[in-house]
């Protein structure tokens, strides 16, 4: 992937990160049942998704990519 790609993947840990926007992370919300965490910015907007065991969670990857396609907007925004 090009260096400017909003998606990074670490094969050694099977972890994918999808960045929605630049910004400082104010807090992280973990969703342990689906092995992902959402980084939330200071304004309450999602900054990115960290997906652990990514190869086992294509559903979570698809959700993150849909948010990225909407310009970082979640369905509730």
Description:
This protein has one domain (7-69). The chain has a 5-stranded antiparallel sheet, with helices on one face. The N and C termini lie far apart (29 Å). The chain has 1 helix and 5 strands; from the N terminus they run βββββα. With 77 residues, it is an alpha+beta fold.
Which key phrases capture this entry?
5 strands, alpha+beta, single chain, 77 residues, 5-stranded antiparallel beta sheet
Short note summarizing the structure:
The chain has 77 residues and is α+β, with helices and mostly antiparallel strands. It has one domain. 16% of the residues lie in helices and 36% in strands.
Give the helices and strands, then pairings.
Blueprint: E1 7-10, E2 15-19, E3 25-31, E4 36-41, E5 46-51, H1 58-69
